[in-house]
């Protein structure tokens, strides 16, 4: 790369940083202006955003990303980092105006307007067809449920409606040059998520000083950690498999980042991610990545060192549900097998939730109970209603019945079949693309573990990233055919 291309590449990286900073600053300023009802601040926000918009459009074009892609990345950043707080960020303008949905649906609308033929092509994907059938069934239910339950029906139906964003992943994958930018964004996000996840011991303090808003109840913008643990695990896998394609950092730095992310699992204390870590070790070995599997095992061992230090010294750090030390980790892992008197919710409690939901399902086994009606009659320790069993697939079965669940199963069978085909054909792909597909397969598996034990898809902060990444994987496999040798991310970087 000559000096001119080097200067251009640095300028584009600067544009990315400035654009992201100004977009987030503008959104925060506008939200504060409206929520705090400060007339002067509203005028400042309007003037600043009006002046900023033309500059932002020019810079976005220089980076070779369209406006819908910037809106998508901004929405994904909020969903994946701030999760529950971001999805409840609401402006009450007569009717609740949900900022996150405005951004993500705005991205979808712009993508359809900009690339109608490509969106039609994406809609013909078998996975997208299955989701569209589920969405059609959902609309039929909403005709009856919306007048009866109001906004609660809309809220519950997002478990299916968010499937629309699979199309954004498919569309993103159609242009290979954007993949490198996405990988760079992911690298930055995983570092930010790592830092944010380590603030969990002070989460209550952050919530107490955070701005609050919401549709049904006031929710703090920061200090929520629903789903962050998932990105710690897939972030560690990213550092292991893909980071060296994105940054030229020493391997020991990437290894240290991965160790810090795996240690973060001990702070977040989510049993599903323990299972996901073991599954990742097995899949890497079976996929011909024995060396990477051994590296991940080494990273796990190194992550236990600070845990041993905390145990020996007696230094106490409060995790999500208990003290961060080896004793708690051991007891928490035992709880996976159903052992009694161990941390975390009990298997008996989960089975009681399933039984309650199943009784609802029995009323309408073929078409489901629809949306708006709570599937459980349970409250948590904060006296907040738990409306659904912690299993998103089971929620779909109850709400859409056997007919809807059949198409949900077909959707996943197609996804798994496509991944298996790509992994078998990986030698015909460029090494970088093959590694991206493998990483996305691991992401899919980790997501599926999460939504099997938590209400992952019932919340847009879990559903939107899930559908986007699945769509991205299907798009890479479908629209980057193995008959053509793919040049890889490194060549894209030289052309950027």
TrEMBL record:
Location within or outside the cell: Membrane
GO cellular component terms, semicolon-separated: membrane
Pfam families the record matches: Wzy_C (PF04932)
Residue span, O-antigen ligase-related domain: 257-409
Chief localization: membrane
Keyword Transmembrane on entry: yes
Protein name as annotated: O-antigen ligase-related domain-containing protein
């Amino acid at each position: 790369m000559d000096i001119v291309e080097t200067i251009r590449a640095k300028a584009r990286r600067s544009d990315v940083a400035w654009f992201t900073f100004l977009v987030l600053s503008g959104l925060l300023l506008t939200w504060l202006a409206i929520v705090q009802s400060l007339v002067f601040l509203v005028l400042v926000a309007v003037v600043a955003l009006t002046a900023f918009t033309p500059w932002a459009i020019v810079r976005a074009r220089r980076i070779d990303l369209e406006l819908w892609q910037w809106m998508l990345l901004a929405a994904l950043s909020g969903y994946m980092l701030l999760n529950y707080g971001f999805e409840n960020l609401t402006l009450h303008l007569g009717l609740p105006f949900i900022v996150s949905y405005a951004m993500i649906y705005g991205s979808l609308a712009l993508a359809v307007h900009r690339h109608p033929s490509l969106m039609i092509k994406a809609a013909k994907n078998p996975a997208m067809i299955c989701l569209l059938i589920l969405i059609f069934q959902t609309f039929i239910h909403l005709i009856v449920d919306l007048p009866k339950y109001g906004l609660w029906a809309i809220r519950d139906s997002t478990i299916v409606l968010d499937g629309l964003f699979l199309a954004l992943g498919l569309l993103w994958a159609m242009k290979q040059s954007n993949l490198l930018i996405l990988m760079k964004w992911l690298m930055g996000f995983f570092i930010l998520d790592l830092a944010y996840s380590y603030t969990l011991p002070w989460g209550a303090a952050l919530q107490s000083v955070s701005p609050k808003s919401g549709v049904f109840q006031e929710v703090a913008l920061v200090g929520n950690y629903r789903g962050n643990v998932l990105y710690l695990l897939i972030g560690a896998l990213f550092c292991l498999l893909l980071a060296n394609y994105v940054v030229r950092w020493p391997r020991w730095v990437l290894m240290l980042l991965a160790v810090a992310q795996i240690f973060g699992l001990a702070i977040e204390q989510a049993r599903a991610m323990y299972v996901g870590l073991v599954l990742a070790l097995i899949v890497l070995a079976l996929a011909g990545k024995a060396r990477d599997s051994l590296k991940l095992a080494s990273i796990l061992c190194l992550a236990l060192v600070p845990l041993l230090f905390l145990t020996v010294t007696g230094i106490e750090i409060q995790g999500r549900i208990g003290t961060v030390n080896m004793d708690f980790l051991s007891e928490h892992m035992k709880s996976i097998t159903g052992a009694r008197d161990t941390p975390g919710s009990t298997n008996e409690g989960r089975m009681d939730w399933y039984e309650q939901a199943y009784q609802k399902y029995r009323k309408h086994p073929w078409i489901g109970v629809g949306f708006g009606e709570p599937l459980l009659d349970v409250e948590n320790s904060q006296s907040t209603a738990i409306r659904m069993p912690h299993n998103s697939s089971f929620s779909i079965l109850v709400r859409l019945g056997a007919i809807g669940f059949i198409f949900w199963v077909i959707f996943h069978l197609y996804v798994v079949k496509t991944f298996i085909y790509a992994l078998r054909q990986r030698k015909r792909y460029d090494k970088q693309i093959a590694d991206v597909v493998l990483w996305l397969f691991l992401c899919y598996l980790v997501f599926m573990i999460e939504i099997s034990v938590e209400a992952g898809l019932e919340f847009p902060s879990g559903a939107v990233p899930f559908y986007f990444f699945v769509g991205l994987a299907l798009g890479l496999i479908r629209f980057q055919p193995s008959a053509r040798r793919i040049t890889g991310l490194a060549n894209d970087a030289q052309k950027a």
